[in-house]
Design goal:
The structure holds 2 protein chains of 2 kinds.
Chain A: H1 9-35, H2 38-41, H3 55-61, H4 66-69, H5 84-91, H6 102-110, H7 130-135, H8 140-144, H9 161-169, H10 194-203, H11 214-225, H12 234-237
Helix pairs in contact in A: 5-6
Chain B: H1 2-19, H2 59-67, H3 73-81, E1 83-84, E2 87-88, H4 94-97, H5 102-116, H6 118-121, H7 130-133, H8 145-148, H9 152-161, H10 175-192, H11 201-209
Antiparallel strand pairs in B: 1-2
Classes of the chains: A mainly alpha, B mainly alpha.
């Protein structure tokens, strides 16, 4: 009886097997890469708005607190897009002839709200709550980035579930003193502020204060103080 | 040839099955998010405006009313308007003091002042805030004889009703926060006009050592 398979058949089989596995892996990696790419997540995509509102001007230059406009951020799930009344507090006097702000004045006169195009849009089955993050010492910066540098608002982070879980598994790496929650800078850059110094002075022992890892030490201490735990149950975010 | 069609068809079936996961129908459910646009209402506003003749209940007055059965209308009115017989009151309403201590009020007032008032009035109350420096009419400084002699309720009334170019903040700052801010404004005034003899010795020494 002659040989059924040629000498090279073994090689072929191995090549097909390995090649197949590689192909499948590659396919899945490509899929995952696509889902996490800005094309799908909209990360750093600037969205056109009716009124080209600049956080860089209002927060960075003028220094208005986040809560002047986003009033419900400490007490409810949503930060709240301000009513036209808030814009008009200043803009009935300032730039009140400006073409750029014509839609604001029109909204004020007609009572019809301005239509903003949503920048951060979580799926409807995610029940994100701003207030609890604020009260647990998670700064605006952690999700919204350096808003004071943004001419037009863009989504600074991918907002994927994977990204949420990164922090929910290890909130200690993201906590900051409550007094600095509304400062849109990384905590490492705020070590010179009075708020940071005060937090260090109240929370850390004398010998730890000059440590080069003082930010990490402070974060560890804050995590205990604010009762931060891993929050990875499905029902933390889903109902 | 038939074989090829069959293969293509099965590939298509498999492909479609796999693509089911790509359509995120639950991403955007029929429910309405706060402030979302809605095609159901003619004006497109999902968060419905209040109907006429509706007065929002202030949680503070509500609480006191349900705790003590007596009619608290008079003190409610002072609390809500800052006025007695049309004139600003010179004390903090009892309703407020029954719920907060002075340090709590001043702390809260400080925080809320920095959020809502600083853009025009400046952190010290000098009236040189950034919005004013950018062209909004300068508000008066708190540190004048005219404003130092005003009753405490005056600052609450101004925050509530607005004054000259200042818009009313009735809808934007809660009643208790407006009282806390008024209290803090008093503290600010005192901070710039304190009698040196009233200082404690430690503070006095610190003052003398300062350049």
């Amino acid at each position: 009886m002659p040989q059924l398979f040629s000498r090279s058949a073994d090689m072929m089989l191995q090549a097909v097997l390995i090649g197949g596995i590689l192909l499948v892996t590659l396919l899945f990696s490509a899929l995952f890469a696509v889902v996490r790419s800005p094309d799908i997540t909209n990360q750093n995509v600037t969205i056109e708005q009716t009124v080209p509102f600049s956080h860089q001007h209002h927060v960075g230059d003028i220094g208005i607190d986040c809560r002047y406009c986003h009033q419900s951020v400490e007490t409810s799930a949503i930060a709240g897009v301000p009513p036209t009344q808030v814009c008009m507090n200043c803009h009935r006097e300032l730039w009140n002839q400006s073409e750029m702000l014509a839609p604001v004045r029109e909204s004020w006169e007609t009572g019809q709200p301005l239509v903003w195009n949503r920048v951060h849009d979580l799926p409807d089955y995610v029940y994100f709550n701003h207030s609890i993050h604020i009260h647990k010492g998670i700064g605006c910066y952690e999700c919204h980035g350096e808003v004071d540098q943004m001419r037009l608002t863009r989504q600074a982070e991918p907002l994927t579930m994977h990204w949420c879980l990164d922090c929910h598994r290890n909130p200690e790496a993201h906590v900051r003193p409550r007094s600095l929650v509304f400062t849109p800078k990384p905590l490492e850059d705020l070590a010179d502020t009075t708020e940071f110094q005060e937090a260090v002075a109240t929370l850390l022992a004398q010998d730890a204060r000059d440590d080069s890892g003082v930010v990490e030490l402070l974060r560890q201490r804050l995590a205990t103080d604010y009762h931060l735990d891993e929050r990875t149950d499905c029902y933390t975010c889903h109902r | 040839m038939r074989n090829l069609w069959r293969r293509l068809l099965s590939l298509l079936c498999i492909g479609m099955t796999l693509m089911v996961g790509c359509v995120q129908v639950m991403d955007d459910q029929p429910k309405l998010d706060p402030q979302e646009q809605s095609s159901f209402f003619a004006d497109g506003i999902a968060s419905r405006p209040l109907p006429d003749h509706i007065i929002a209940a202030d949680p503070a007055t509500w609480q006191v009313r349900s705790a003590s059965k007596h009619d608290a209308t008079t003190s409610d009115e002072v609390y809500l308007t800052g006025r007695v017989d049309g004139e600003p009151v010179d004390t903090l309403p009892a309703l407020l003091l029954s719920r907060f201590t002075y340090p709590e009020l001043l702390h809260r007032g400080h925080e809320r002042f920095d959020v809502s008032c600083v853009p025009c009035h400046d952190a010290t109350g000098s009236g040189n805030g950034m919005a004013a420096r950018r062209g909004f009419p300068y508000p008066p400084t708190y540190h004048s004889d005219r404003l130092r002699s005003q009753p405490l309720g005056y600052f609450f009334v101004v925050a509530t009703e607005g004054h000259n170019k200042m818009p009313p903040y009735r809808d934007l700052i809660s009643t208790e926060d407006r009282w806390a801010i008024a209290a803090y404004v008093r503290a600010l005034q005192f901070s710039q006009y304190a009698d040196v003899t009233q200082l404690k010795e430690a503070d006095l020494n610190a003052l003398q050592e300062s350049p």
